[in-house]
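A sample follows:
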Amino acid sequence: MTEERREALVEDIIERELRMFLAVKTRGGKSLCQERPESFRIMREMTHGVLSEAVLESYLGDLVRAEEAGRNFMTEKYALMDDLIPAINTDPRIRVIVEAEADWRDEVSAQFPRTVQRDGRESFCLYLRCELQTYSPATLTAYAALVDAARNEGRNLVRERYEILMRKLGYGSLEACEAQLAAH
């Protein structure tokens, strides 16, 4: 896949997700996060920036079908996180993906404890588990294949995501951010 095609896919996904995110009705009115769409875009670019073409294309299809059906994945994800609705997807691959990503996160937080807090594992797992419940079986298949391939290649997708984030935030890299935080 060309870099242009990849960027277009990620951008299309993020714009669809942002529309869903801005439409989420919260109990206390509009959330602070909803008032910062650029932060949302950066975090979602971090999330999707390491995904394979197969995952991106399948997930984009999920989003299009959800829009056509009047579903809002963001509303569903946050309702799942707040225990307001029962699980909507119990596919066993979700647990496997969450465990792999959590292990990768633990590795990153051990290497860069000032940048990636160690105590965030539980919330990381909850967020990812609830997000993955909105994915179709085809997207979960592609995501599980990506996780397997990354493991076999010795890649750490969480580290790759944080490298994207650090570049977006102007640090250049995780190492640079960690060094800057250690100096203060």
